[in-house]
Backbone:
């Protein structure tokens, strides 16, 4: 840069100092041949420009190293069950989730006898297949509606979906208890299945309740903050290569269109 | 695979809550069902003369279940906060009402510490408010909401067809395969245990067993003793989930622990049919017995249960984090749920049929080995899955929304 010639003298002074220190190093090494305590720059004799470059490069690396260290140290603080945030919210969701398998599994213990009580004349094999049909109807209805519930919860809020789902399951449960015909019972089970597609919604809510500051802009898929895992990972890669597992740790970012 | 996902230290525990309640429900559900079914016939001295219980003998357990659901419903209405950021700040009559009741109750008890409103103000370090006394009653008409960390409000919603990124599809496929094989195994496992033991003195017509692969016969166990084993293993599963899984997840990362524990499934499925070759201490027509068979049984079940316990929550975390945009998180979980119920509908039906075919041709292990192959494919497929950050696709306005949220959080005094 020709228009900044006024800045040249201080630069030259720096260079001069650097050269001086270079000589010092040489002297030090002459005095103390086991000078391995020093940083690697000092023990090598390189052209000055190269050394400057190296030094700045290493500085950069050091800075990055600091960046790496901080999150790792934060991570090492062990999280216990007590640390979970919003415990009451999680407890309510857990209660809501507990109700559903409770219904399912209590039903499984007496459904055979209940179906038998609808029509005593049916053989056991028919009853067994009827029980299978009722279970299948439940999961088929769930299959059809789970996606829709998820979609609705994204567009209209999670709580309302959970509210509708739980009240629907509740009504279906009472209805099933008071049904006296196979097809009525099946319709109520289908209704329960259709309304219990909100397990996905509960999972969504849990994820949103424990969400930390996740949305900070960060280059995606960098291996920056993984230093604590590197040793284990390297070991694991070796182990898996030993097992001849292909494609391990392969990454693709996008659907290859 | 990246900083974001590992940053969320709570996920590994929080996502354990749901499968754990599932385990608890399957343990206490049958007790409720068994105790309350047909009370008029089972406890004639207590419920003998009640007409509706006699007319509807199975109403009682259902009413109890409905009562549980109703309790959960009340808790949701009055206790749960909306988590969707676009709706979280709207009027919620249930929460407002419960807060009013809370405040009234607090006034009645004259204990300032239970006021919601005060904790709210206390937690804001930067608000210069009037000196606070716990005895100044807060206006009961509009009780203050405690401040919460604000999440970014994404204005744009990801269109449905753009949800299916490469990673979403890979995750869903391996999730479907996994739940399908678990569901199928759980259903044919019971059939296998109750299938009669192979009797060499009266073999099926023109059939000769050729170990190592062509052999037939089950274990012939009564379901009651199996139920006991399953309950014990369920308890072990809960304990593992409570104490071991979060640590392992933190040490290895979600995706790596998932890939490792997926190898439990092919192993367990491949080994299970060989249980019928273990010599029994009693001659063939009677059920198998002796310590050898129980050791084998428990070993296989234990391996399978470890896989199920550890891979299940990991799958949920992976599904959660493969979501390409926060605005479709609910849809992603819905699709995941649909995929697993599809696999659970088809899997057991197909499994039951193929197990029967295998018995017909004298190869009891056929379905198990198909399952082992299926879960082997899952293990391979898992290598294509990577842990996303929940925000793979960035839409216009996302950055602005995040800056806005950051700014507001700083105003609220969050870091």
Residues:
């Amino acid at each position: 840069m020709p228009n900044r010639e006024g800045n040249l003298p201080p630069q030259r002074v720096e260079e001069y100092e650097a050269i001086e220190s270079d000589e010092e190093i040489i002297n030090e090494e002459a005095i103390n041949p086991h000078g391995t305590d020093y940083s690697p720059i000092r023990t090598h004799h390189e052209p000055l420009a190269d050394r400057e470059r190296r030094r700045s490069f290493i500085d950069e690396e050091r800075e990055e190293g600091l960046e790496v260290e901080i999150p790792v140290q934060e991570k090492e603080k062990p999280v216990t069950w007590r640390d979970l945030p919003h415990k009451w919210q999680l407890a309510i969701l857990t209660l809501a989730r507990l109700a559903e398998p409770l219904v399912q599994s209590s039903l499984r213990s007496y459904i055979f006898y209940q179906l038998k009580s609808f029509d005593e004349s049916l053989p056991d094999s028919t009853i067994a297949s009827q029980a299978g049909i009722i279970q299948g109807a439940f999961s088929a209805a769930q299959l059809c509606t789970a996606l829709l519930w998820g979609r609705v919860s994204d567009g209209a809020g999670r709580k309302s979906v959970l509210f509708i789902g739980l009240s629907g399951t509740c009504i279906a449960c009472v209805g099933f208890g008071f049904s006296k015909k196979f097809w009525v019972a099946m319709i109520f089970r289908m209704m329960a299945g259709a309304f219990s597609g909100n397990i996905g919604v509960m999972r969504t809510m849990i994820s949103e309740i424990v969400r930390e500051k996740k949305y900070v802009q960060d280059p995606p898929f960098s291996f920056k903050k993984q230093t604590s895992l590197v040793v284990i990972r390297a070991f694991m890669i070796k182990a898996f290569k030993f097992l001849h597992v292909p494609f391990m740790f392969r990454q693709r970012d996008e659907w290859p269109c | 695979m990246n900083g974001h996902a590992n940053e969320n230290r709570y996920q590994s525990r929080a996502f354990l809550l749901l499968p754990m309640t599932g385990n608890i429900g399957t343990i206490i559900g049958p007790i409720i069902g068994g105790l309350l079914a047909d009370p008029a016939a089972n406890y004639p001295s207590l419920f003998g003369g009640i007409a509706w219980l006699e007319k509807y003998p199975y109403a009682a357990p259902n009413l109890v279940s409905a009562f549980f659901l109703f309790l959960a419903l009340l808790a949701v209405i009055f206790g749960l906060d909306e988590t969707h950021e676009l709706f979280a700040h709207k009027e919620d009559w249930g929460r407002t009402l419960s807060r009013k009741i809370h405040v009234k109750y607090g006034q009645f008890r004259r204990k300032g510490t239970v006021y919601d409103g005060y904790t709210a103000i206390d937690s804001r370090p930067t608000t210069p408010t009037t000196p606070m006394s716990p005895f100044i009653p807060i206006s009961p008409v509009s009780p203050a909401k405690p401040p919460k960390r604000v999440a970014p409000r994404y204005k744009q919603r990801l269109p449905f067809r753009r949800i299916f990124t490469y990673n979403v599809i890979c995750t869903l496929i391996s999730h479907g395969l996994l739940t399908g094989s678990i569901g199928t195994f759980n259903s044919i496992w019971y059939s296998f245990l109750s299938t009669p033991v192979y009797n060499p003195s009266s073999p099926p017509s023109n059939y000769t067993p050729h170990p190592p692969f062509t052999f037939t016969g089950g274990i012939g166990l009564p379901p009651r003793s199996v139920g006991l084993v399953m309950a014990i293993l369920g308890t072990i599963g809960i304990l593992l989930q409570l104490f071991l899984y979060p640590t392992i997840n933190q040490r290895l990362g979600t995706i790596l622990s998932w890939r490792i524990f997926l190898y439990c499934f092919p192993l367990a499925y491949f080994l299970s049919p060989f249980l019928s070759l273990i010599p029994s201490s009693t001659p063939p027509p009677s059920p198998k017995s002796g310590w050898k068979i129980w050791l084998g049984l428990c070993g296989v079940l234990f391996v399978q249960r470890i896989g199920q316990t550890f891979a299940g929550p990991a799958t949920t975390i992976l599904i959660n984090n493969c979501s390409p945009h926060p605005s479709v998180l609910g849809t992603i979980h819905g699709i995941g749920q649909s995929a697993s119920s599809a696999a659970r509908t088809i899997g057991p039906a197909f499994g039951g049929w193929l197990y029967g075919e295998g018995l017909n041709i004298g190869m009891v292990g056929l379905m198990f080995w198909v399952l082992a192959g299926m879960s082997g494919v899952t293990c391979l497929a898992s290598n294509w899955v990577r842990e996303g950050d929940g925000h793979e696709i960035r839409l216009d306005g996302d950055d602005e929304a995040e800056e806005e949220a950051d700014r507001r959080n700083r105003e609220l005094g969050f870091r």
Remarks:
- Chain B touches chain A through 110 residues (CB under 8 Å).
- Residues 106 and 385 of chain B are 51 Å apart (CA to CA).
- Chain B has a mean pLDDT of 77.
